[in-house]
Amino acid sequence: MARLSVNIDHIATLRQARLGKEPDPVAAASIAELAGADGITIHLREDRRHIQDRDVRILRETVKTKLNLEMAATDEMVNIALEIKPDMVTLVPEKRAELTTEGGLDVVLNRENLSRQVELLKNSGISVSLFINPDLDQVKTSHRIEADYVEIHTGRFADAINKKDADDEFERILDAVKAAGKLRLGINAGHGLNYINIKKIMKISEIEEFSIGHSIIARAVLVGLERAVREMVDLVKVNQAVLKQPL
Ligand code: PXP
Asked: Residues 210-247, buried b or exposed e (16+ Cβ, 10 A)?
């Protein structure tokens, strides 16, 4: 059965809007776990626009499920991860001007640097996931540099403006997942997933973990965090019999 890791960055976004103390992502993480989340994801950005170093340190102490730290593949971030020791690191590309992570890592182009960082992190007992576009060369190179997981970028599928584009993107994701499965890579997925499009992507039963943030926090503002997480948990842990329906 698939797992849900709740990305709580936007709780911190709200706090940083006033540079104050509320809402506290540490409290949000506890509520998400009580509501059935299997993990907590945070992205420590180089510009510290939402999650702060203090959050990472405290969450390492308080998260009882699995802490996934998203971060840029830089020496500064790798050193922080080596000190904090999250359960998993997801390496992502990062541009200061972007609203959110825009594309996957180019593992092929940055193979040497990523390979060194994957090795450093793995040697200290942290599992490493690479956030990549659904592209076979990216999957193969992620395997060659011995990543534990790939996180397949679902953003283009989520943002597709018509059924044909969505179906094409879905096929790309499916092909990437199959290739990653053959190479025995662990498979996560995320970006832009919501309470509607998760129903289709869930049919790819090889996906082990979904990382979902914005849609859950957006719903939480209206219905409460506990309920918003629980509703997504119910969708992600949908009965396997439902998944047997044709793709
Ligand atoms: N996975 C990665 C690697 C991300 O960078 C993000 C956004 O922080 C997510 C998943 C979650 O995306 P969303 O907030 O659109 O659910």
From this structure: bbbbbbbbebbeeeebeebbbebbebbeeeeeeeeeee
Q: Ligand 1 centre and the CA of 212: distance in Å?
A: 6
> What are the sequence ranges of the domains in the chain?
3-238
Contact 207, 188 (CB under 8 A): yes
d(CA 58, CA 79): 17
Asked if 50 is an active-site residue, the reply is no
**Under CATH, which architecture does the 3-238 domain have?**
Alpha-Beta Barrel (3.20)
Q: What pLDDT, in 10s, does the model give residues 70-126?
A: 999 999 999 999 999 999 999 999 876 777 767 899 999 999 999 999 999 999 999
Helix (H) or strand (E) holding 212: strand 209-212
Q: What is the pLDDT, as a whole number, of residue 98?
A: 72
The residues that bridge with 190 in the sheet, in sequence order, are 153, 211
Q: Ligand 1 mean position to 149 CA, how many Å? A: 16
Task: Work out the burial of residue 83: count CB atoms within 10 Å of its CB; fewer than 13 is exposed, 13-18 middle, 19 or more buried.
Answer: exposed
Q: What is the mean pLDDT of the chain?
A: 95
Q: Pick the catalytic residue: 43, 50, 143, 153?
A: 43
